[in-house]
Write a structure and sequence with these properties.
Strand order of the largest sheet: 1-2-3-4-5-6-7-8
Number of helices: 14
Structural class: alpha/beta
Order of helices and strands: EHEHEHEHHEHEHEHEHHEHEHHH
Number of domains: 2
CATH class of the largest domain: Alpha Beta
Number of strands: 10
CATH superfamily of the largest domain: Aldolase class I
CATH architecture of the largest domain: Alpha-Beta Barrel
Shape: elongated
Largest sheet: 8 strands, parallel, barrel
Radius of gyration: 25 Å
C-alpha cells in the first residue's frame, strides 16, 4: 500500500551543497550525516566525487563512519565519473542524464538513441566492477521531456536488469501532482522496479508532488534539511514528515521525530540562515495560538486546532495572550500556570485591561503576569 514501504534519500550533502550559502567542511558533513543517521533516514546522498578532490575524500570519510544509512554518490552518465565513484567505496551510485529538449541541446548534445547506448554502456561497466553496488538510473528534467522518449529510455534501462531503481526528476519544479502520479504509476506498472522521486520547489509543489509519487507507488523520496538546494531547493525533510504524519502517524514512526528540530537548527546555523517563521514543525509560529476562540478550544482539546502534536517532535505549544485578540480563557490558563486562584469576573476584567493596553502596544508575558499578580494580592 502507498506510504507503507518507502525510504528517504537524504540529499543535504549533495543537492544541499548547491544551496547559495552552503559550503560544508568535512567535519560538518560528518556531523550532518551522523545526525541524519540517528534520525533514521535510510540513505544519504553525497556530492559527486568528480566535483573536487575534497568531495571524493569526504565520501570516503562518511563511508568510513560505519553508519546504518547507506551512502550514495551522484554522477553523470560517463565512465570516468563511474570510476571515481567506485573508488570512494560508496554503497550506491546514482547516475543521471538530461532528457528534455533543452538539456539534450544545451547540456550533452546526444540523441535519445545515443543516451540509451551510453547509459547501457556505463551501467554495464559499473555492474561488472561492483556486482553488489546499489545502482540507480534517472532522467533529468523528466517533466519537460517527451513521454515517448522517457518510456523508451526507462524500458531500455529496465530490460538491462542492472539497476534496482529508476529516478524521476522534476528538475525545474514545473510538475503537478497529477503529472507526477501518472509517470510514477506507469514506471511501477511497466518495469516493476523501485522508483525514486526528486522534486524541486520552484513553484511550491515539491511536498505535494512527493506525496503524489508515493501514492502512485514510488519507493524513494529525495529530501534535504530545510529544503535547501539549487534555487528554491527540493522537498524539505520536515515538510515531508509533516505531510505524512497528518495522513497517518504510523507512516513516520520509524523516524526519531524529536531530532528534527536539531537537524533544522544545525543546517540553519551552518548555512547562516534563519529557520522561516512558517516552517513546517520547527518554525517559530508553528505551535503558537493567538486568537481567543482558537486558544479556548486548544486549551480544552489541542486536536481542535492542531493536526501535529508538538510533543511528538520534542516541542511545546504556546498560547499568546498579550494582544488585543486575547480571550479570558487564555488569561485564566495563565493565572493557573502561576498558581493563582482568581474568579471569573476578575479574570475578565484583567482581559479587558490587556485588550485596551494592547490596542496601543502588545504586552509582554511579564506585563500580563504583573496584572495577574496585582489582582491576586488584592
Amino acid at each position: 500500500m502507498p506510504f507503507d514501504n518507502y525510504s528517504i534519500i537524504e540529499s543535504t550533502l549533495r543537492e544541499g551543497e548547491q544551496f547559495s550559502t552552503a559550503a560544508f567542511t568535512t567535519a560538518q558533513k560528518q556531523t550532518i550525516a551522523e545526525r541524519l543517521d540517528a534520525f533514521g533516514v535510510e540513505m544519504i546522498e553525497m556530492t559527486s566525487p568528480c566535483a573536487s578532490p575534497q568531495s571524493a575524500a569526504d565520501i570516503r570519510a562518511v563511508v568510513g563512519m560505519g553508519l546504518n544509512a547507506r551512502i550514495l554518490t551522484h554522477i553523470r552518465c560517463n565512465k570516468d565519473d563511474a570510476r571515481q565513484a567506485l573508488d570512494t567505496g560508496a554503497h550506491g551510485i546514482d547516475m543521471v542524464i538530461g532528457t528534455s529538449p533543452q538539456l539534450m541541446k544545451h547540456s550533452h548534445g546526444k540523441s535519445i538513441n545515443q543516451i540509451i547506448d551510453l547509459a547501457a554502456d556505463v551501467l554495464s561497466f559499473i555492474r561488472q566492477q561492483a556486482p553488489d553496488v546499489i545502482l540507480r538510473f534517472s532522467t533529468e528534467d523528466s517533466f519537460r521531456s517527451r513521454e515517448s522518449d522517457l518510456l523508451r529510455i526507462y524500458l531500455s534501462m529496465a530490460d538491462l536488469g542492472l539497476v534496482q531503481r529508476l529516478g524521476v526528476a522534476d528538475t525545474v519544479g514545473v510538475a503537478t501532482p497529477t503529472q507526477v502520479g501518472a509517470l510514477v504509476h506507469q514506471l511501477v506498472r511497466l518495469t516493476g522496479l523501485h522508483v525514486e522521486f526528486h522534486g524541486h520547489n520552484d513553484s511550491g509543489c515539491a511536498i505535494a508532488n512527493a506525496c503524489a509519487a508515493l501514492e502512485a507507488g514510488a519507493t524513494h523520496i529525495d529530501t534535504t534539511i530545510l529544503g535547501i538546494g539549487e534555487r528554491n531547493g527540493i522537498t524539505p525533510l520536515g515538510g515531508l514528515i509533516a505531510r505524512l504524519y497528518t495522513l497517518n502517524r504510523r507512516y513516520v514512526e520509524k523516524y526519531n521525530l524529536t531530532l528534527l528540530p536539531q537537524l533544522d537548527l544545525l543546517i540553519a546555523e551552518t548555512c547562516g540562515i534563519e529557520i522561516p517563521f512558517s516552517n513546517y514543525i520547527t518554525g517559530s509560529s508553528a505551535f503558537i495560538h493567538k486568537a481567543g476562540i482558537h486558544a479556548k478550544a486548544v486549551l480544552a482539546d489541542p486536536n481542535t486546532y492542531e493536526i501535529l502534536k508538538p510533543e511528538d517532535f520534542g516541542l511545546s505549544r504556546e498560547i499568546a495572550i498579550g494582544h488585543r485578540l486575547t480571550g479570558w480563557n487564555a488569561i485564566h490558563n495563565r493565572a493557573l500556570a502561576l498558581g493563582l486562584s482568581l474568579d471569573e469576573l476578575t479574570i475578565k476584567a484583567i482581559t479587558l485591561t490587556v485588550k485596551e493596553r494592547a490596542d496601543r502596544q502588545p504586552l509582554s508575558l511579564s506585563e500580563v503576569d504583573a496584572l495577574l499578580l496585582e489582582a491576586a494580592l488584592g
